[in-house]
Amino acid sequence: MTTFFLNNNLLHTDMPPGMLLLDFIRYHQHLTGTKIGCNEGDCGACTVLIGSLVNNRLQYRSFTSCLTPLGNVHGKHVVTIEGINMQELNPIQQAMYDESATQCGFCTPGFVMSLAGFCLSEAAPTTQQAITAIDGNICRCTGYKSIERAAARVAQLVQDRGEVAPAVFAAEQQILPAYFSNIKERLQTLQQSLNGEMTPAEDVRAHYVGGGTDVYVQKPEEMKQKAIRFLFDQPPLNGITRQGSRVILGPAVTVTDLQESPVMQDCFPQLDECIKLVSSTPIRNMATIGGNFINASPIGDFTIFFLALDATLVLSDGEHTRELPLRQLYKGYKQLNKTPEEYITQLWFEWPETAQHLFRFEKVSKRTHLDIASVNTALHIRMEQEVMAEVHLAVGGVGPVPMRLERTAAFLQGRWLSVALLQEALNIAQTEITPISDARGTEAYKRLLLSQLIKAHFISLFPQLSVADLLNL
Known about the structure:
Layout: E1 2-6, E2 9-13, H1 21-28, E3 47-54, E4 57-64, E5 77-79, H2 91-98, H3 108-119, H4 127-133, H5 144-157, H6 166-172, H7 183-194, E6 207-209, H8 215-218, H9 220-224, E7 228-230, E8 240-243, E9 246-249, H10 255-260, H11 262-267, H12 271-275, H13 281-286, H14 289-295, H15 301-308, E10 312-316, E11 321-325, E12 330-332, E13 335-336, E14 343-350, E15 356-365, E16 373-384, E17 387-396, E18 403-404, H16 406-412, E19 415-416, H17 419-432, H18 443-461, H19 467-471
Parallel strand pairs: 1-5, 6-7
Antiparallel strand pairs: 1-2, 3-4, 3-5, 8-9, 9-14, 10-11, 10-14, 12-13, 15-16, 16-17, 17-18, 17-19
């Protein structure tokens, strides 16, 4: 049985845990305010909120229900548009109405839910943060300025929240229904009644699923009937810690977890800039790092990120564990150096605090945001005085697998940087890649992109270099 709160009601269902939450909401609970749109997590029409207890703190995230398996909401609170309705329009809905921020209305429930998620979050109560909350929602007819004005009004609603818990404040101020004020206590009671049931038993025959953001795009009907071991949000597979010079992550860590981690923020001061290039808020809330690796896409953004860090995976088949450098995981297009029974239990990378690290992630896609990369690349350099003592350069979109440019990195390693040296490095890089022409760009375009992105790395990391000379390479 899957047990969770749906709006203000506790549900127990024996529906297949691999079925989509969107289908359960619409076809089995008849809550049709949550819309069916792209079924790829791109448009946001199916947005819901999912609340869970994290270190005894109530946390709400926006999710695209078209990619969320029912099993991933076990023991949690699912909120649909019907669950935030009040006697009259709530203040979020009223702001959308007053600013004429809706036309055909199909996308409106998704926008309202994302803004409700902003009100239930601990994000700064600013207009920009409210607009960021709706970065996964698309409107095809109204125009975004009216929606931005509505978002600005919603930001005003939480200006005076202070230290009050967001759900309690939203209920007290009648932004959302009163039942939100005691959801935390109800979830605590539910977890106690489940008595450990929320941690699934290991089953090597099961299909492993993290956030589901790729597998449910590819084969949602097939997944519905599979035996699944849900890895998303499981404590043994979560968390980000530092032990000495080693940073250790669980594979169920989401992109949002990375973004909010003090450990990662300390290592990568410009992490927010990297993450803004990756997908949308709801997908970042769902997508796991381990899933990004195992998906084996040649352009997986965080695969490239962690390849540049020379990360190591810990794999288990339920009985034995082994360590495998991430760079050795990919044998060919969508071919992995692991058995079907193995799954990632941990990953780590070395980051000595005493070293001088330079790191940069760059990406080009057809759209600036919310798109798959044409080419992406990450560069990690450990400096010793003015010398590049250690260099790791990872690239995606220029071969059948995510890859590191080993010869290029070896050429740069141990050298003083100059424009002439970089020119030679760019020439070597071109010999290591085998891009193909496809929907993301021609072979020539991808070769050009790689050179330009490598230049962008060095322009950002070495401001003493002549930009004009670099651009003329």
